[in-house]
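question for whoever is on the cluster today: can someone run the full assembly for these? two chains, 1008 residues total. i dont have access anymore since they changed the login thing
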Amino acid sequence: MPAVLSEPVRSHFPTTVNTSTAGRPDFISIQNFSFFYGAKQALFDISLDIPERQVTAFIGPSGCGKSTLLRNLNRMNELIDGISHSGDIIIHDHSIYDPLIEVISLRKRVGMVFQKSNPFPKSIYENVVYPLRVAGQNAKNVLDETVERSLKGAALWDEAKDRLHESALSLSGGQMQRLCIARAIANRPEILLMDEPCSALDPIATVKVEELIQELKSEFTIVIVTHNMQQATRCSDKTAFFYLGKLIEFDVTSKIFSNPAQKQTEDYITGRFG
Amino acid sequence: MMTLFIKSGGVLVITAVLGIFFFILFQIWPLFMPAQVSELKTVSLPNHSFSLLGVDEWGARPFLVEPDGRMLTVDYETGAVSEVPIDFGEPLQIVSAALNKREQMIIVGTADGRFAIVAPGYESEESDGRQVVTIHPSAEKVTPIGLPGVPILDIAYGDSGSSKLVVALQANGNNRQVSAAIFERKRSLMGQGKEEAVGVFDLTSLIPGRASKVLVPGTGDSVIVVTEDGKVSYLLLEDEEFKLIQTFAPFEDIPGAHIQAATFIFGDVSICFASDSGANRVFSLYYPKGGAERFFGKTHDFPSLGTMPSFLISTLRNKAFLLGGGSELSLRYSTTESIRWEGKMPYNVVNAAISGKYHRLVVLDSTNKLHFFKIDDPHADSSLKALFSKIWYEGAPEPKWEWQSTGGSDDFEPKFSLVPLIFGTFKGTFYAMLFALPIALLAALYTSQFLDPRFRSIVKPTMEIMASLPSVVLGFLGAIYIAPIIEKEIPSFILLAVGLPLVAAITGFFWSRLPIRYRKLIHPGWEWIVFVPLLLVSSWIFFQLGSVLEAIAFVVTDPATGQKTADFGAWWTATTGNSFDQRNSVVVGFMMGFAIIPIIFTIADDALSNIPAQLITASMACGASRWQTAVRVVLPTASPGIFSAIMIGLGRAVGETMIVVMATGNTPITEWNIFSGMRTLSANIAVELPEAPHHSTLYRTLFLGALVLFVFTFVFNTFAEILRHRLRERFKTI
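^ ran it for u. tokens below:
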């Protein structure tokens, strides 16, 4: 395959240089964002600032739009036909909808972990280095180093280091999800999107992933969609509650769960609906 | 209930397939069977000495010539022995005799240097539902030849129809004299013509050695003289003069070998020799490569009989011959170098004759008993070697694989090598796949991964309709319309084959380098709107440039006139030495490609489309482009399905019949030359079946071709299935 075809990127999404330790409170700034699947409106005028290097949880009942919003942060929704949006999403002062940037360069900066683990039918090693390979990085020492760093980062190194060249499908469900996390952080993105990463996992695997999220937030800005309110309380710093495509409430997690400002939020977290 | 129904259906299908398989096996089995020879009857003869044994074409009434000019005949049905006098007009003492097989005539040489030709005069009639063969010999005039009054040791003659060549061997003191005489039949208005000697030759001076045996082919245009030192001289009659063409020693590598027996094989192009030790070889006349004159060369070597041969006779039906000596009988087949049958008799064999129908054998033993045998050998010319190995056919300068089932003359030998057909099958498949695979797979990759779903829903059914085009239509179109165009426009097609992928790649390159603001103008999945017109325009340009390329690159100079012509066909023949036919592999590749592209495309497209969406999103989320996703994730994951698509396409190409029958020219050749045709196994069956008599060798060989085809598909599919399972295991998804 000619390199020209694998590297069609012309206009890159600007890379952030981490200087402060505190991080910006408006690292991701969602501004009056509405989103439509064809004629059906899925998100209504959402404005939200997601802080840098913290965990932000999106909660809400099914169909509330939390996943749709998450998938807009790396423009994954564009794989679907007939979508449109209004408003804007700014990551570190740059609009992700800038017509002159390649969506691919955005996705290289925003890693994503899906609800169902989706390893490629390749070896563990090849799964982890996939983002590097598609970026044209084939130097063995870089790849080896990335595999070790990413698997350690995803707390999978000890279990997988002796079987790196075995099929990824030989791993257990929890291991596979951690492998997907390792893959998502392999190319050192700044933001990690997690779409219900533990919903298909058993409790022990869930605990491991949650611990992992706590470790990863020192390095990545994490946005996690979850159904599980305990999970949101355990691992997030801020929580946004969505209902029927609208942002109902957004605040520090402890505040949302102990003293919500909105009645709908309170009804949801106390289990009266959802 | 339902499972029972399904089960019995499955069992029925397996039974049917096995049934077909066994039927085919049953049909081809006789091809590999040796001859069956069984003794029918023994008749005791009076204790005379005989100079010749012959038999009629039905094997019902053998005759023996006695030295006093009488003929002893035996009726097979009754076992009755009777004596029939031959009317020579005078008492004769016969000292030598020979058969002219082609004419079914006898020639006898006398003790006083004369010869006479005798017609056995067989008559066959049905009486009481059984065949009765009677013999009424009649002799032509007794004519002197060679040295007057000297006994004739050996005699032979050939009849070209207008003239006869008679050759006699006599003792001349301590030397041997070989004399030849040519007789022409002068037709007069008053009935039967008179024969006149028009030339008399003394060949002795031409022969290096002491002659011991003479042979004349049925055509009467040459003489073969065997000498006592084990050499053979080949003399050719040209412009009414004999010339020594060649002297050779058939057993030169065996010290002290003498030629014990020699006979022409049916067709009179090959001579079979047997040495005194039983060694057995066949020499054939052929033009050596580049030679202008025919010479005898060793073409077949048989295992030794193991004992001194007493006779060597050939048949009138095929290239078989019978070698006998001591108590051994060995029925052999010249062309295929095979021993059809061997027998050890409880008596010593002296002479034998085989009926013209090659179904009965009479053997005379040393106690003057005549043994009748039945020969059952319907496929004498067939063997594993004849079907799959290189065979040195008569007249050919070297052994080769050849298929030629029918010829113009009676002594034509059918050539049944399956190798050119197997080769043709592979050649046709290869060129078809060469054309179809890249197009079908790339098209499937494009439609499934890049094309907007709205267009995909149009493209796919269209391709599926294309798959249902009857192949006879494609073949007809290929032969009548496409072949002449391709023949004329080869340079254009070369430009297209090289140019179009190049244009596509260059366009892709510049497209991907285009700033995003322009690329955004075309919605993903709609790129073909830019691409297709570009390809059409460049196709047209390349096609027009074809004649320009031809005028520049493919020019031949006529050596006679010095005139230069731009013609690809002539250039190809002059440059590569290979032929250039109108019905060639390009046409087949193109038309058969049309037949298999839709099949491969549809199955591959299904396989590529069924890749779990989560894998594609995972790849996209990793920052991969659509192309990277397609090549690195979709293609490997879909590889088992794509592999199936290729194998199904391959199976179709291997078994495809109508297109190859109509568009290949059906020449059974074994060369990869892209501008020559081929004959495939399937086409061969279609072409030859109307000319194959029931249960003939050709008929059974066609069945064998079918079996080979069956085995190919079976092996291909089994292999493919194993590989597909491995791939599926490797690229399974959760």
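summary bc i know u wont read the tokens: Residues 27-269 of chain A form a domain with the Rossmann fold fold (CATH 3.40.50.300). The radius of gyration of chain A is 19 Å.
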